[in-house]
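Students often ask why we bother predicting the structure of a whole assembly rather than each chain alone. The short answer is interfaces. A chain on its own may look different once its partners are present, and contacts between molecules only exist in the joint model. In this exercise we take two input lines together and write out one structure for the complete complex. Read the inputs first and try to guess which parts will touch.
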Amino acid sequence: MKVVEELASREQAARELLARYVRVVDDPDRIEEWPDLFAEEADYRVVTRENLQAGLPVCVVCDDSKERIVDRVTVIREFWGAGGRLEDRHYNQIQPRHVVGPVWTEPQDDGTVRVVANFVVWGTPAAEPNPRLLALGEYRDVVIFTDRGPRFRSKWVVLDTPVLQDVFVYPL
Amino acid sequence: MIFRTNWKLYVENIYDGYHVTALHTGFQLVRLRSHGGQRLVPNYERHGHLWGQSRSTRREELQPVLRDMSLFDVRTKPTTDHTMMVVFPSGVVTDYFDTLQLRYVLPLAVDQTLIEFTFFARADDPEEVVQHRVRQGPAVLGPAGAITLEDAAALARVQMSSLARGDNVVLKGTPKRFPPYRHVDEAPIRHFYQAYRRLIGVPEEEGKP
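Now the answer. The structure tokens for the assembled complex follow.
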């Protein structure tokens, strides 16, 4: 049936968007592409499960507008000097690695697709033998279908830990 | 957030005003200056508490490097005065921009410290002020805040250097030995360690500051 095919292809497109997201956030040279994965009205947050369950509004990261999402790239490149000269950085380069899955997709009546996925983010610092656990938890995303294709209307990174394990430079 | 540093180095970083304009690139880029003010260590012969106040550049005069400059906005106070305090030995109290914050310093190991960040609003704040505080506080002074990563990286390196063998001498000249200090004098740090040595019962040495 056409409706079923359409739903299935929307779910598949949402999964592909998430896969593209992971490719971008794992590549320190491609962080400028990160804002393009979001719709014009977008909401990216990193929150703790603890705060979410307690109904507390404070987030670890609250990029609740496209402007803030674009600003994050400025913070990463200009404030923190990521990928730039050693003299402008205070830390060794770190290679992020997201491990995502399983992924659950739920098409909604309004045409969007809700996506939930487990995730772990590791970081391997330059010149160190051991990777570090940066974050662990669950993505809760909403994908909408724009004329540019599927985009994140919202992406909530829900951390299982009540505190951050380490600093992180690139988006989770 | 878990910092890779001894708790005293984290606290020392609050006593130190010298690093602020040198280390926090974000402040330089938006041209946020802290004008004047001072750092005090009240009753320094007996206590190690820190009190520091300064006044920062108004948001309208900053370079609009970010699209959302509300990070540096002050809407809830009549001036841009800001205050940092430490209730010795480790109670960090911050009133900066529109952010009211406590930080709890919880040592986990000799080289690991858990810092819990809590943010506050006033009971009579209208909803849009609460939202502004929610959007500002963690973005600048939170565990993933614009200025936090630089402190964490620097503190991790200083912690590593504490393992250097032999004598380690840290020296920065200051024309003053007693408060009040300017923000660039690192001297408040000395008072922290003097108070800490008193606390743990290290006998005072004749002639040593």
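Check your guess against this: Strands of chain B lie at 2-3, 34-40, 50-56, 81-87, 91-96, 99-109, 112-120.
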